Hints:
The complex is a heterodimer of chains A (282) and B (167). By secondary structure, chain A is of the alpha+beta class. In chain A, 39% of the residues lie in helices and 26% in strands. A five-stranded mixed beta sheet of chain A has the order 1-2-4-8-7, with helices on one face. Chain A has a five-stranded mixed beta sheet with strand order 3-10-9-5-6, with no helix packed on it. In chain A, strand 7 and strand 8 (239-247) form a beta hairpin. Chain B is extended. In chain B, helix 1 (2-11) packs across helix 2 (17-34), helix 2 packs across helix 3 and helix 5 packs across helix 8 (142-166).
Amino acid sequence: MFPSSSQIVDDVLVRYLLGSLPESEVERLDEWSVTDDVFAQRLKDAENDLLDDYAAGRLGDDVRARVEAIYLTSPAALERIRFARTLGEWEKRGAATATVGAPAEVKPKLIVIRRRWRWPLAAAAVLTLGTVAGYLAIEHTQAPVAHAPTQALQKTQAPEVAAGSAAIPVAATFLLLPGTRGTNALRTLTVPANAASVELRAQLEFDDFAQYRLELRDLAADRVVWRSDSVAAHDEGGKRVVAATIPVNTLQEKSYALQVLGTKRGAPDEPVGDYAFQMKLP
Amino acid sequence: MHRRLVAYFLRKNCLTPNDLADETLTRVSKRLEESDTGIDLPPSQYCYITARYVFLEYRRKAEHKQVPIDEQSRSSAVLEALATPAVQGIDDEQAERLRKLEHCLGCLEAGQQELIREYYLGEQRQKIERRRTMAERMGVSMNALSIRACRIRDKLEACLKASMERT
């Protein structure tokens, strides 16, 4: 049986890039390179590393010959090799400086980051969080939090309260945490019966953009079912979070992925993170 | 999707990956416009299937295309210039590229320069271990770290390219 995309080891990626895999396997990997976000990213990483190794003269003769046969035939690929060579030169210079100067220790800035992220890591471990795309984990609040009602909620709430109804509509809030590869169970978000909307708050691993867009993707159909307007990240206890509120009637009992995209004027949106979950409705 | 398609065509050794990615997306959007009932496949998969057809057509055409002799010799010259990078010293052009790269690096946000140096430095085996340590230290997944490093690298590559084209 052919392994899934997350089971493909780095050596196979390199053999794929060098055209050394059997045709039957190539086709599957070709497809994932276009359709699977995480696989496409791993492949890009492996390719950068291969070109860096080539440019630095670290490859054996056979591999080097294959790289030349594949990558030195198009202007775009040549440009990438040139860049790899220049980057390698810069790194060598930096490495030499670091050896002469102080030992290349962890920068204080990074220590700060480490401390800042220690809690979510621990939380992620305790919760044994799941991922399908190999990238996300979810913290499910024990009971959905009833938010201070928004204006829209106040409107729907008033008549029900007047009528003595016990079912006061609330916004169920879920915090989605970034996670790690390798697990396969999706976290379930259970929406309470009186929820009129669901607020999804995605904790970012890096906050590199001034604005973000959130897209909710139906995983089975691979289709975007809801899109947010432009939103900015905000601070929540030292962590950067982007949030969006989705009407409950948009949702079904399905597996979804909330995709966070960084937006920049005049540039295509860039994927920042995926947070997959199983939605359970009342 | 466009970027992924470009990478796909590049891996397939196509000389005009951008054009082929454009062609793929044009066909996909045309098909979507023409179809009343929609397409019974996830969009990304439909893009891949279309890209595959575009590639097969490209390959058929390329088989009949003659490569001019001067184009071949130009490729050989470039190949020679690049093939022994570790042995040769830094020539003038490379020194110029390095200066410009340093300028581009100077435009990065705080911490990005350190990140990219640490991420890409060294040989493969060391890299894997170092990246694992980096991700752990920063409290992020390997995939998130990889996305970030690749994004910085892409930014640098574009900056260097633009900078070289200006001279």
